């Protein structure tokens, strides 16, 4: 998603001249007309302006006279493949992204078709024992268990490579040699892979303290558990983190839980409310994070800490830890039932 989409928002009282200035100054070739609540009213392209001029409209004419009032839009949760297919089928170069009726971004066909190379480190946690998947993990580390015909870790790394990421760091502990011998230094994949070995388990956050000092300066790091199967748009996640200048961004997944009983509320011995088998809504940690350098630098070497505890410390300091809802496919392969489901899901995921 373009980082400069907010610069192309204009009000309905703006003039054609205003729209022309926005289109000329920005590289997105479009202006979005929105109301005070950021609801999309119309879209203006260079072609709309030219047609208005040919119809003898002055440059002082309100943009409402030339805008397309029924533009093609897409939901923010749409995948890159869906957006590309939609724009190509409609012969359009840009599409507004909508969430809850409001404009939240703009995607361009050019950006979708080009491959951006990201130097941001990708840090994969692959050192766990996988005890809930025994006996499968008695002789194989969990990230190396095959889903379909490839190890989980191979699928995860390939997904990052397709998104343009080239610098990988893998945290190992249990049966580390199997992971090293399979991936090597990453040269066969056209990327760089470095290994961070934990002599003793340091928790999901403690491994950050073992990262080398020569990480790319000033760039946030994407951190992910090595047992996650997902189609999360990592580029959009990174754009979100950078746009909001967060200390850390946690991917979260909506989780609904239905209480299997009727729930009764009361005051004293008086019943005030009864709800039969209510559904409660939660956001759960998806095991994917974007971490800024200030958080990485705060973890001492050989220091045991879990990510929730680490993020809680930074929340109390600056209140700048954000969450990024995951709408795409996501599966934490922690139990045997998850592993069996993954074998079926992989056939239709295109991973």
UniProtKB/TrEMBL annotation:
Identification of the protein by name: Nucleotidyl transferase
Alphabetized GO MF terms: transferase activity
SUPFAM superfamilies, alphabetized: CBS-domain pair, Nucleotide-diphospho-sugar transferases
PROSITE patterns, A to Z: CBS
Ranges of residues in domain CBS: 1-59, 67-122
Pfam family, one: NTP_transferase
Membrane-crossing segments per the record: none
Keyword entries, A-Z: CBS domain, Transferase
Provenance organism: Shewanella pealeana (strain ATCC 700345 / ANG-SQ1)
PANTHER family: SUGAR-1-PHOSPHATE GUANYL TRANSFERASE (PTHR22572)
């Amino acid at each position: 998603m373009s980082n400069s989409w907010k610069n192309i928002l204009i009000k309905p009282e703006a003039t054609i001249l205003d729209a022309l200035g926005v289109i000329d100054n920005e590289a997105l070739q479009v202006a979005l007309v929105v109301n005070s609540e950021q609801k999309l009213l119309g879209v203006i392209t260079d072609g709309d302006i030219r047609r208005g001029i040919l119809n003898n409209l002055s440059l002082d004419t309100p943009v409402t006279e030339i805008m397309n009032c029924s533009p093609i839009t897409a939901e923010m949760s749409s995948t890159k493949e869906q957006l590309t297919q939609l724009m190509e089928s409609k012969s359009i170069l840009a599409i507004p992204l909508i969430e809850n009726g409001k404009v939240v971004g703009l995607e361009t066909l050019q950006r979708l078709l080009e491959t951006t190379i990201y130097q941001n480190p990708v840090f994969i946690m692959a050192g766990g024992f996988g005890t809930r998947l025994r006996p499968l993990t008695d002789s194989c580390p969990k990230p190396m268990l095959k889903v379909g015909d490839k190890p989980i870790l191979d699928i995860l790394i390939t997904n990052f490579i397709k998104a343009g990421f080239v610098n990988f760091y893998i945290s190992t502990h249990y049966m580390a040699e199997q992971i090293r011998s399979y991936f090597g230094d990453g040269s066969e994949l056209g990327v760089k892979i470095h290994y961070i070995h934990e002599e003793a388990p340091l928790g999901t956050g403690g491994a950050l303290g073992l990262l080398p000092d020569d990480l790319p300066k000033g760039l946030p790091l994407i951190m992910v558990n090595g047992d996650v199967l997902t189609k999360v748009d990592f580029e959009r996640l990174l754009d979100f983190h950078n746009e909001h200048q967060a200390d850390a961004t946690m991917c979260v997944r909506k989780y609904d839980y239905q209480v299997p009983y009727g729930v009764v509320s009361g005051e004293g011995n008086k019943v005030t409310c009864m709800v039969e088998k209510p559904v409660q809504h939660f956001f759960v940690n998806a095991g994917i994070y974007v971490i800024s350098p200030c958080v990485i630098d705060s973890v001492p070497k050989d220091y045991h800490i879990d990510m929730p505890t680490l993020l809680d410390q930074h929340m109390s300091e600056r209140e700048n830890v954000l969450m990024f809802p995951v709408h795409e496919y996501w599966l934490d392969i922690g139990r045997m039932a998850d592993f069996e489901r993954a074998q079926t899901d992989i056939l239709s995921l295109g991973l």
